[in-house]
Amino acid sequence: MNDEELLNRILTKLNNFKAKDSKQHFNILKWFNRLVSFALSNHHPRNYRAYSRGQILKVDFGFNVGHELGGVHYAVTITKRDSTRSGTLAVIPLTSFKNKKINNYEVDLGPEFYNHVEFVFERLSREMFQSTISRQLIATEFESFESEFESTKILVSPEIRNKYNVIFTHLMFDVNDGQYVSLDNIKRKLDDQLEFYNRMIIKNKNVMDELKFMKPGSIGKVEQLRNISKKRIISPLNSSDALHGIRLSKESMEKINKKIIDIFVFDKQS
């Protein structure tokens, strides 16, 4: 069988499957597209991102066989000590709670994961609101400061600090009386603040978008424990991702530990 014959056979099977299950047919195409992308990249970095035990990830488990969990799901890291040199990671997939009885191979993790992400969103929203107000006040005050001082260096005194309290409280808080400050230095601090503010906006949007697809309850599918390539991880890949820093509590991880022992560790008498 040559390449063309094999490709035609695959296309025929795909068309037959599409008639039976169009949704799963589309899932196969998506996973096939991802596999081809993996093959084309063929990139094996020297260093990978290291993930902590208990950290929540979003993973593309692909199109799997039978009762093997497939598709995009959240997962919890169970690798004890991950390394930047390791390209694989042990995880347990998570599914949403569907108001049905939990089986003996699952762990009810409650709304902890959802609540954690929701808390991050609320905290970021508060910080953005406060930062927006302070940036507006600083911008207004800096216009007066810039028009008053034309020299490149300004000696900070209690009088100047009191007059431009917003600048020295929120921007130049590390400058003491008797020290010099320059307009260029203040402008650099303003640029740094703007960059931080823009990162905050991106992070807040990512968290908000993630919450739209989440449901309050989570189930740990412990029987589906598996090693995955880190290339399967969709998020978090950087600090602005919604899942960056999201981890389950020690109590939830202890539940998972006990269930792992129940399912996978032999009794001495067995």
UniProtKB/TrEMBL annotation:
Family as reported in the entry's similarity comment: Belongs to the PemK/MazF family.
Protein name: Type II toxin-antitoxin system PemK/MazF family toxin
Gene3D superfamilies: 2.30.30.110
GO molecular function ontology, one term from the record: DNA binding
Keywords, in A-Z order: Toxin-antitoxin system
Pfam family, one: PemK_toxin
SUPFAM superfamilies: Cell growth inhibitor/plasmid maintenance toxic component (SSF50118)
Organism: Facklamia hominis
UniProt entry tagged with the keyword Ubl conjugation: no
InterPro entries: PemK-like, Plasmid_toxin/cell-grow_inhib
